[in-house]
Amino acid sequence: MWNGLFTQTTIPLLSAVADFSQVRHTVLAGNLANLDTPGYQAVDLPVQDFQGYLKEAVAARHGRGPSMSPGDAVYLRRASSPQWSKEARPILRHDGNDISLEQQVSEMVKNQILHNTAITIMTNQFRLLLTAISEHV
Fold first, then answer.
1. What CA–CA distance (Å, rounded) separates 70 from 74?
2. d(CA 69, CA 7)
3. Which helix (H) or strand (E) holds 49?
């Protein structure tokens, strides 16, 4: 009964978003840490692939696709190794490093907003569940 209570909400999807943004934040921080490392190439987790995964998970919840469980973090296991960034290189340096400080910080800020939004919505979902449970008892 309790398992169904959580899986029928958006909590598993929000948990997957929070997990993804946490892992991506670590990857982006690694890029910034290597800002002055000669030959370092920026890596990132493909956000579009994760969005596609979420669409598939939502479709599966509504019976329009294969059964998926976003809470299992299947995507994060697949994306545990960051890929070379496919975006256009904003700068070209003689040491072979392609990291743009401004671009990395911008991506980190967008990623932090995504994380904060997921956590805020998840917190509200838990409050709703707590209210429903306390009124039922």
1. 7
2. 9
3. helix 47-61
Cα radius of gyration rounded to whole Å, the chain: 18
Question: So where are the chain's domains?
Answer: 8-136
**Alpha carbon 93 to chain centroid, angstroms:** 30
User: For 64-94, how does the pLDDT look when each residue is reduced to its tens digit (9 = 90+)?
Assistant: 655 555 444 445 545 555 665 555 455 666 6
**Pick from 37, 33, 48, 21: nearest CA to 108:** 21
117 class by beta-carbon count within 10 Å (0-12 exposed, 13-18 middle, 19+ buried) = middle
Helix (H, G, I), strand (E, B) or coil at 35: coil
What is the average per-residue pLDDT within 54-58?
A: 85
Give strand pairing partners of 43.
84
